[in-house]
């Protein structure tokens, strides 16, 4: 990214985005598996969720850096990407002190001594033989079963589990969170607030994600909640929140329609280009306004009436 800014070459930015995306994809798969294999059974859910927690925290920090008085200008935007060198260097240094996964050592290297040494470091005690035997028992049990193929997920005995997994991930994507994060600045500015207000609103939403993720990490291994209860709470919460958003949009549209109401149920919507007004300070952008916003000489209006 820095080289793209210095040399003014757009294809270096595409290359950097490709490398960032590849690293993000690998990390999203490898890191939760590694953390889950290192953690004890009573903390497995919380430790596995910590990856998503720090991911949300990084998004929050990046949004704070994107403020105009920090790095959010045409001259300083590349510094946001340069800040990524700090965690990269920290990971390269700290990975030398991270133990190998006991499951990996037992499954692929068949080295029980190394697995015991890694578990002793992780658990802070030397009596870990029982856990090593449990790992070997899980591995031997899985080896006795036939190796699953891709088509096995659609078999009769796994069909329900596959459908449930797809449904859970589908509900996560249909929650609309990505759409909200992408469009919140446009929505805030469209209703009359400033871009700075939109940035603060976006930071507030990401901060809410951080808090909810931290709360989920604390409750996922709780005997009172657990994974299934938290999933149900999240799904029903998304459902009622989506209903509330739909009702709000219906009310907004109905108010706009009644404002432009004409005889015989006529709806009029007037659009104009913001930069066609006399101030000419904004980037060209289509917006909805009343017909009295600009004079006839100052704006180009496109009126669509429904009779």
Keyword list:
disordered C terminus; mainly alpha; transport; 3 strands; 12 helices; 5% strand; 307 residues; 3-stranded antiparallel β-sheet
Note the main sheet: 3 strands, antiparallel
Rg calc: 27 Å
Number of strands: 3
Mean pLDDT over the residues: 75
Uncertain segments are 261-307
* Helix content class: 55-70%
DSSP summary: helix tally? 12
Supply the helix-strand structural class.
mainly alpha
Strand content: 5-15%
Reading the helices and strands in chain order gives HHHHHHHHHHHHEEE
- Could you give the order of strands across the largest sheet? 2-1-3
Shape descriptor: globular
For the termini, the CA-CA separation is: 52 Å
Give a topology summary:
Elements: H1 2-7, H2 10-38, H3 44-65, H4 78-82, H5 85-94, H6 102-109, H7 112-123, H8 129-144, H9 159-173, H10 177-190, H11 195-219, H12 226-259, E1 267-273, E2 286-289, E3 302-306
Antiparallel strand pairs: 1-2, 1-3
Helix pairs in contact: 2-3, 3-11, 6-7, 6-8, 10-11
Summed up:
Helix content is 64%, strand content 5%.
Report what the structure shows.
With 307 residues, the chain is mainly alpha-helical. The protein has a domain at 260-306. It is built from twelve helices and three strands. The protein has helices at 2-7, 10-38, 44-65, 78-82, 85-94, 102-109, 112-123, 129-144, 159-173, 177-190, 195-219, 226-259, and strands at 267-273, 286-289, 302-306. It has a three-stranded antiparallel beta sheet, with no helix packed on it. Helix 2 (10-38) runs antiparallel to helix 3, helix 3 (44-65) runs antiparallel to helix 11 and helix 6 (102-109) crosses helix 8 (129-144). The longest helix is centred in the C-terminal third of the chain and has 34 residues, at 226-259. Mean pLDDT is 75; it is low at 261-307.
